[in-house]
Design brief:
The chain has 18 helices and 2 strands. By secondary structure, it is mainly α.
């Protein structure tokens, strides 16, 4: 059986390489194209995603039966979600009000079927859902194609290196007080970093890059045993450090906390191996570790202005909370968003409908910038999980949980505990924590990177389990 499985893997090499290459192409393009948050970048990425179903078909035809079964566990709830969204597009709950050819608002549509899923603006729902479905499918192909582990290591390495290059460039321009992206491209948000319009979108991407770098560092350290200093382990460890340090430099508090969680997990997983290496090699290990400490300290010193700003902002909000103030506009935003969920708890208001439906319940205004003169229009709930409830209701939330359970079942818990799957899954989880107070999954670069790395982790864990059963 082992020989049959090896032969099958050799025949599947090309599809695996295509799946990995396709995912890397989307990741790198979107990362450098403002995270994919501009219309042109989304259109180009959407065209690139058109190849994803073709790769899926080729991978499905060549996949082992056991891999197909595991893929169904992940894909089945996502297909049901697609069905829910499709039905909602045929059952709009609002009608568009226009002044001439210009949309000016929405009014309730009384004739829609309340016992079926519905949405506010069907055309907008379908376009955005298909785009995000394409990004997710690119990641799913990495699991279904079952690339060789060497190809998956290339995927992780290029993901980490690309993110580290952006981190260095972004930090340099941040420290030079640039007012435009790379000193050239105007940003719609003054809180930008590197090529990303919004620093918490960068933060989510950097956390994923750090998880990929940390996963490779610990993987090489584990397999090299007493010769790890001759492997790329230290190189990827430094990349992980650079990416984590870029988080406070960017000024993103929530992302910095998510990075701290990831750093803690990486440190706990690496600790016994590092201690053993220090005892075995002494100065040969202490010197590079000292260099890493100097780099971290220097980066923190260079980013001291951003750190002071973050501390002052946090202190002001805590003081406001203590004196009975609002402290942060997110609190009333969450309260109003919860009212929106309570109005349509089963199916929600429809995919990508928060920006339209929230106007019905908005009870406050928030000046997002000091110079802002007009009332705020909230496009996102600044909590992706709460927005999931408002847009897809309990049905959508249940399907999301079922998808994560399917990912977990792709391989036994024993294999998820090993590098690099553990670190990659932790990185995905840290972005999920960030999504409790922000909207990282509104950024296409984060969506494709998160799903690609999670599916790479699942592919490695599944491959290990199948190998164990084949022996």
């Amino acid at each position: 059986m082992a020989n049959d499985r090896t032969l099958h893997a050799e025949n599947n090499d090309l599809v695996g390489i295509v799946a990995v290459g396709h995912a890397l192409l989307l990741e790198i393009f979107l990362a450098w194209r403002f995270g994919g948050m501009d219309p042109l970048g989304r259109r180009i990425a959407g065209c690139l995603c058109l190849a994803a179903p073709v790769v899926t078909l080729l991978a499905w035809r060549r996949a082992e039966k056991r891999v197909r079964a595991r893929f169904r566990w992940i894909a089945a709830p996502l297909l049901l979600l697609a069905l829910v969204v499709g039905v909602s597009a045929l059952n709009p709950n609002m009608r568009l009000l226009t002044a001439g050819d210009t949309p000016v608002g929405f009014a309730p549509r009384t004739e829609h079927l309340r016992f079926l899923p519905s949405t506010v603006w069907p055309a907008d729902t379908i376009v955005d859902f298909l785009f995000n479905a394409g990004l997710v499918l690119v990641g799913l192909n990495v699991f279904l194609a079952q690339p060789r582990r060497a190809h998956l290591r290339v995927l992780l390495a290029l993901t980490a290196i690309n993110a580290a290059i952006l981190a260095c460039a972004g930090s340099a321009f941040k420290l030079l007080h640039a007012t435009a992206i790379f000193g050239t491209f105007p940003s719609p948000n003054r809180h930008f970093f590197a090529s990303f319009f919004y620093y918490n979108h960068w933060g989510a991407f950097a956390v994923l890059g750090a998880a990929a770098a940390g996963a490779l560092a610990l993987h090489y350290r584990h397999h090299a045993r007493d010769r790890w200093q001759d492997t790329p382990a230290l190189f990827f460890g430094v990349l992980a450090l650079l990416l984590l340090v870029s988080l406070p430099v960017s000024g993103a508090r929530a992302s910095s906390l998510a990075g701290l969680v990831l750093a803690t997990v990486l440190a706990l997983h690496a600790r016994p191996r590092v201690e053993k290496g220090v005892r075995a090699f002494g100065p040969r290990v202490l010197l590079p570790l000292g260099i890493v400490a100097v780099v971290a300290g220097a980066s923190a010193w260079l980013g001291r202005e951003e750190l002071r700003f973050v501390l002052r902002k946090t202190s002001t909000q805590l003081e406001s909370l203590h004196t009975g103030g609002v402290a942060d506009w997110r609190l009333p935003l969450y309260r109003d968003a919860w009212k929106l969920f309570e109005a349509e708890p089963v199916y929600g208001w429809g995919w990508h409908s928060f920006r339209y439906a929230f106007r019905r319940v908005q009870s406050f205004d928030a000046k997002m910038e000091n110079e802002q003169k007009v009332p705020s229009l909230f496009l996102d709930a600044h909590d992706d999980w709460l927005q999931l409830l408002t847009e897809l209701g309990l049905v959508g939330a249940a399907l999301a949980v079922a998808t994560m359970i399917g990912v977990g079942r792709a391989a036994g818990s024993r294999w998820w505990r090993l590098s690099p799957s553990l670190e990659l899954a932790t990185g995905f989880g840290c972005v999920g924590l960030l999504a409790l107070v922000d909207f990282p999954f509104a950024c296409p670069a984060v969506v494709v990177s998160a799903w690609t790395l999670l599916m790479a982790a699942a592919a490695i864990a599944c491959d290990r389990e199948l190998d164990a059963r084949s022996r």
